[in-house]
Amino acid sequence: MGLQARQLYLNLPVKDLNKSVEFFTQIGFEFNQQFTDENATCMVINENTFVMLLAEDFFKTFTKKDISNAEKSTEVIVALSADSREQVDEIVNKALAAGGKQSNEPIDHGFMYGWSFQDLDGHLWELTYMDESAFGQEN
After folding, report:
1. For residue 138, pLDDT beyond 70
2. Of 9, 66, 77, 127, which is least packed with CB atoms within 10 Å of its CB?
3. pLDDT of residue 136
4. What pLDDT does 135 receive?
5. Which residues have C-beta within 8 Å of that of residue 54, sequence separation ≥ 6?
């Protein structure tokens, strides 16, 4: 078996750390205060997945490359699973109410439903619900 990482830490640059924390708090995310200061915060996705929101100047200390302008180009789409269609809508609507922008119209494939938004810095977030009972079942 290949590499099996126990945890995932996704690092995203943000222009205003406090505004980003407020934005994601309004959506319903929580933060690990143990890994939070004026430069960074650790947003908890689940017990093994985290998004480190890093102030741009601090983020620059980790790379020699230019930071992408997420409002003009896309380097990554953060895709998260939801427990239901209703939860997809709830999370995206909270993001829009908190100042985010709609990225795409909702996509409904019957067995799969998704909708996406842009955060305050233009990073793309996609929520998807997959109805596994709609797939063929073993007899």
Report:
1. no
2. 66
3. 56
4. 63
5. 11, 12, 13, 14, 17, 39, 40, 62
